[in-house]
């Protein structure tokens, strides 16, 4: 099952969700503030190891 990365439009929280193909983005909610329909982030396209240091889903986590 693919994992998608999302960014909350309300609070800016970034998180990852496993999502089946049949499921829609509308079911995804921000784990922090509960806002619906976060923006989907295409992490593989937007950033690579050289342009982003740190974890992909837990801001502030020491590496
Ligand atoms: Zn949020």
Largest sheet descriptor: 3 strands, antiparallel
Task: Encode the helix/strand succession as letters.
Answer: EEEH
- The CATH level-2 architecture of one domain is identified as Single Sheet
Distance between the termini: 26 Å
Query: Which class best fits the helix and strand makeup?
Result: mainly beta
Mean pLDDT: 76
Bound molecules: zinc ion
CA-based gyration radius:
12 Å
**Approximately how much helix is present in the residues?**
under 10%
- CATH class of one domain, please? Mainly Beta
Kindly state the number of beta strands: 3
How much strand? 15-25%
The number of helical segments is 1
Backbone shape: globular
Uncertain segments are: none
């Amino acid at each position: 099952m693919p994992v998608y990365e999302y960014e909350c439009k309300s609070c800016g929280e970034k998180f990852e969700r496993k999502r089946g193909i049949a499921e829609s983005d509308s079911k995804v909610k921000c784990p922090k503030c509960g806002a619906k329909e976060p923006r989907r982030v295409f992490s593989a396209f937007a950033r690579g190891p050289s342009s982003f240091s740190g974890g992909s889903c837990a801001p502030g986590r020491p590496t």
